[in-house]
Design a protein that fits this description.
Helices cover about 50% and strands about 15% of the residues. By secondary structure, the chain is an alpha/beta fold. Helix 2 (about 30-45) crosses helix 5, helix 12 (about 315-325) packs parallel to helix 13 and helix 13 runs parallel beside helix 14. The radius of gyration is 25 Å and the shape is globular.
């Protein structure tokens, strides 16, 4: 018996269709939430961070942390392990991670007219049509980004991505479920030995990919009958050394019989390959209204393998904190609008785990005492020696690491 993936537009009656399908077939239901839990258990990454992979907006720190790539690797591993079983309904975004080479998965899209969806959202959420429509458009952005990233298709509802596209505004949930069940039982999507091998290949490629990201590396991974091909898609100055390191990591994965590497189209672009060093601070938020100073500081920290994002005022800094949760914040005191002391007070009230280093050229002794009482990690004066600042950031990062280790 085959399995089914269901990818749906928002407010397209997905829950009712899936419920009817489970009742009719007796298949096991796996949702994105289920797979997020499994991925979190395998990776140690918090569930909230894994859920963010389904959002259209990547973290501002992602180019330093590679958090989205690490998350996707472990989501793939969770999906690959799930496919060891048959008779599944995988509902949500995660089903799109399954390679097209696995032919015994029936791919279903649920979609409806925008007018239908707007009315449904407005009724369920008790909001006006305009607000409901705005929410639908935002959720469509997430779906479009997801299919663009995984399948290189900007239109998440393109018919060629699916085996069945079902209009939920024109058919009842029970009728849709019956049609899906009938097709899932057909010989076209029946499990074959070739399909089993494709699942094995998917599982092995997912294992290799997670092994690579755990060591801070990114590479495309393909596996077939134990032979693994790694694709390097960013320029690297010492290619032979990188290839050797990637091969040694992949070779250690059980089931790998051989490893080859190649360079992909991205290798010839200007972007430089950077191995993620998990011991180095990579989620630093620099907050200062002196744009030239803070941009130069960001570049100097990057030269020391420390990744940072920049905010030029207190309000922007608080928005980044709400959306992305930096580990360490370097904070100026004198800024237009919300000043540094107020930013420090709000950050420590809502997210005390963020370590805040004050870096100011205008502070007084009373400011220093106030900041330390509010929970600042350190108080530094401009101009600051970049090595002193780097050492302070590393100390703050080490404090965070020790706290996280104590929780495990």
């Amino acid at each position: 018996m085959s399995s089914v993936t269901v990818f749906s537009g928002s407010f397209c009656n997905e829950e009712a269709v899936v419920r009817a399908l489970i009742e009719r077939t007796g298949f096991q239901l796996l949702t994105d939430a289920d797979l997020v839990v499994q991925a979190s258990q395998k990776s140690g990454i918090p569930e909230t961070k894994i859920e963010r992979a389904f959002s259209s907006r990547a973290s501002v720190f992602n180019k330093f942390t590679h958090e989205r790539e690490r998350t996707l690797a472990h989501l793939r591993l969770a999906v690959a392990h799930a496919l060891s079983a048959d008779r599944l309904v995988i509902s949500g975004f995660a089903g799109q991670l399954i390679p097209r080479s696995i032919s015994h998965v029936l791919r279903v899209c649920l979609i409806a007219d925008l007018k239908f969806r707007t009315a449904k959202a407005a009724a369920e959420l008790h909001v006006q049509d305009q607000e409901a429509l705005k929410l639908i458009h935002k959720q469509e952005e997430d779906r479009a980004e997801w299919t663009k990233m995984l399948l290189d298709r900007a239109d998440p509802w393109a018919a060629e991505l699916y085996d069945m596209v079902m209009p939920t505004d024109k058919m009842e949930a029970a009728a849709i479920a019956a049609a899906i069940a009938e097709n899932a039982a057909s010989a076209v999507v029946r499990i074959t030995e070739r399909g089993r091998r494709a699942v094995d290949d998917f599982q092995l490629s997912a294992l290799v990919e997670t092994a690579l990201v755990r060591e801070g590396h990114q590479a495309g991974v393909q596996a077939r009958d134990g032979a693994v091909l790694l694709t390097i898609n960013k320029h690297v100055l010492m290619l032979n050394r990188l290839e050797s390191e990637l091969k040694s990591i992949a070779d250690a994965v059980p089931g790998v019989k051989s490893v080859q590497t190649k360079v992909g189209p991205g290798f010839y672009q200007a972007d430089i390959y950077r191995k993620q060093d998990f011991n180095m601070p990579s989620k630093i938020l620099l907050v200062d209204d002196e744009r030239e100073f803070v941009q130069t500081l960001s570049e100097r920290l990057l030269m020391r393998d420390m990744g940072s994002a920049v905010a030029y005022d207190g309000e922007s800094a608080l928005e980044v904190v709400r959306e992305d949760t930096p580990d360490v914040m370097i904070l100026d005191l004198k800024m237009p609008g919300i000043d540094g002391i107020e930013v420090l007070r709000r950050v420590k009230a809502t997210q005390p785990e963020i370590e805040v280093i004050i870096l100011t050229g205008h502070g007084s002794e009373s400011d220093r005492l106030m900041c330390m009482q509010l929970g600042a990690f350190a108080y530094l004066q401009k101009p600051v020696d970049v090595e002193e600042l780097s050492a302070t950031i590393k100390s703050a990062n080490e404090k965070i690491r020790q706290k996280n280790a104590a929780r495990l």
